[in-house]
Every structure is written in structure tokens, then in C-alpha cells.
Amino acid sequence: MILSKKIHDKYVKWVWAYLLLFIFEGALRKWIAPGLSTPLLMARTPIVIYMFFIAYRHNWIDNPYAKGLMVLSIICFFTALLFGHHNLFIAAFGWHNYFLHFPFIVIAAKILNREDVIKMGKWILYISVPMTLLIIEQFYSPQTAWVNVGVGGEGSSGFGGAMGYYRPSGTFAFTSGYTAFESLVCAFLIFFFMENSNLPKPLKIKKLYLYAIAFCYILCLPYSMSRSMVFNTVIIFAFVLLCSTRNMKSLKKIIIASIALSVVAYVVLKSGYLGDSMAAISERFDQADQVEGGLEGTFWDRYIGGFFNSLLMNVPVFGYGLGIGTNVGAKFINGDMFTIFNAESGFGMTIGETGLFLGLFFIYFRFAWAINIFKNGLRQRNNTLAVCLLPIMCLTLATGGIGAVPMMGYLVCVCFLGSAALKHY
What we know:
Shape: globular
Order of helices and strands: HHHHHEEHHHHHHHHHH
Strand order of the largest sheet: 1-2
Structural class: mainly alpha
Radius of gyration: 21 Å
Strand content: under 5%
Low-confidence stretches: none
Mean pLDDT: 89
Helix content: over 70%
């Protein structure tokens, strides 16, 4: 369904607001309004509530998987109150993730058109340049410096890294949010390198700017000290390359983009700007190899192994209650995502909160939704915009954790951007 220009123009600003709050919500909570850190956890909630009622009036929520998650969230809201933690606020927060944020993917995707997605990608790339400067400053600054202050103006936002350096968080509350943001940067960077010359002038990025953005992205890979960021980069590039092999025009574009990015990478390596970051990320990988067995171990533990491990969790029939695995919910019991069970994994959080039986239904709807999108994407291999977003969208929708507020925001953003890119115009 293609919306009229009047309706599109009326509501697209709210999708922009959601995206910008995902990127800058942490900055508000850390630096601009630390005293309002707790209420700002719900900064995007008024948007999804308002748009939910608009969508209900226009019958926009026609996705069976989103509807399934909504129904399950209502059931688990009551099981949490009756058999779980018995806390109304925790249950309401857990319920609102599934009942409001997941359907917002469908709502936003209906509102956005292809031009909107490209514009958003363009601004994400522009924002990534000062973001890179910020994370380099965070990398070298002590954890007591203002750039590394934690949410609420307390503690620090850095996370354990290597060689005495901490993983930076950028404008986000946690390092996971920054890593997720850079996945979007990677997807749109590859898209613009492949399609920039074919775009209308208002959507193009000047070549000099595009190469500067690529320079910053490659520079931030070691400074992030994030294996997930390296993993996502490999996944996105490999998937785009694989999809391009069946079309000579697309294959030519990805080869040219690969050569250009390789030249940029060489310049970065010779620039002297990497400092201690290469040694730090190498140490970080060595430490992780000893624990998880490298990138293949990371993939197994976080995805395949994570699913099977969650099936063996010792939890009550109806779990510990919807919302208890989120950072917000855990605060009500003066804990964190690891207080009762390991909620860092999307699977672990789902089973821990809702129990094995209902939890498997949640996992089913998310997987079925992701598989449906993936199949649709494979039928559009010539749609470069969709192909660049498809791997991270499907992986995140199926397996991504939503316990931390930034990760819930990332899941929604990457999914509505990717879904809108797949629409037939």
C-alpha cells in the first residue's frame, strides 16, 4: 500500500524523530539532561503510542507476525503479574516493547518511501564522521573524563576492552548501541559506493565526502574494539557480493566499490591515525579466542548455541515475568540483566521472561517474520539498497536482544529501513 503524499508528509517526521532519538538518546542521558536519565529511557514511547493510534485508525498494522507478538505480549503481561514478578511497571515496560515498538516497524515501513530511506542513510553517514572523532577521544580519555561519563552523569559508559583501553560508546548509553549504529553505517556506505553515481543529485554524496566517511568507518573498526562490528562488516559485504554474482552490472559495481574501499583502507593503515587501536583490538581478539574460539565461536555462542542453551534454562513454566530481563525492568529490583538469568542474549531473555512454552512462540514469530523478509529480499537481488540492509535486518529481527533500550531502538530502525527498501514502488 502506497500512502498519499499528504499522509506521508504528515507522519514521516515522527519516523525521523524515532531514528534521531535512537542515535542521540544516550547523549541526552549522559551529557545534556543527566538528571532526566530515567524518564528519557521512554523518550521514543510517546512517538510509538501516537503512531499506534494513527495506524489503528488507518488499519496499517496488517502484518501477521507483528500481530502475533502483540497477542503474546498481552498474555505474558498477565502471566507476569499472576505468576512472575507481580510488578505492574516492569510488566508494562516489557509489554510495550512487543505491543508498540515491534508494530512500529510495520507502521514506519508503510510511511517511508525509497527516497526517505536513502536520505536517512545519507544523514547516518554524515553523523558517523563526528561520531568517529568522538569515539577516538573516548578511547584515549580516562573513564573519569566527561566524554566517558555514564548515564545520569554517574560512572562511565566505557566497557572492558584490552591493554587498559575501554570500548567507547559514542553518543549511546552503552557500547552495544554504538556497534549497532555502525552496522547501519556499513550497510549504507556500501550502498552509496555502489549506487551514488546513479542517484538524483539531491540524494548524492559528494565523492570527497564519501571517501572521508569511508576513511572514518575503517578507522573506527579498531578503535571500537568490537568483534561484533567486524563480524557485521564481513557479513554485510559477503552477502552483497554473493547477491551480485548473478548480475554482471551489480558484480561490476561491488568490485569497483571493493577496490575503492581497499585503497581507503590502505591509506588508513599508512596514515598513522590508528595509534594504539590496532594493538588493542588484536589483544581483544586474542582474549576472545581463548574464551570463545574466534569469530566462528562468537557466531555459534550468540546465535546457534545461544538458542539451544536457552532451551536448557531452568526457569518457571511462565518464566520470571515479562520485562524483568530488560535493563529498565531490572532497575526496579536493584539489579541488571544478569541478576536472575543471562538476558544479554535475545533467546535467553525471551525464555527467561516468559518460560519455554510461550517463549518459543515469541521466537517463532520473530524467526518467521525474518525468514519472510529474507525470501522477499532474495527475489530483489537487483535492489542494492535492500540487499545491503537485508543481512543485518534479518539477523537482528530473528535473534537481536531487546533488553537494553538502545538495542530495541536499533532493531526497530534497521527493520523499518530495510522493510521500506523492499517495498515495490
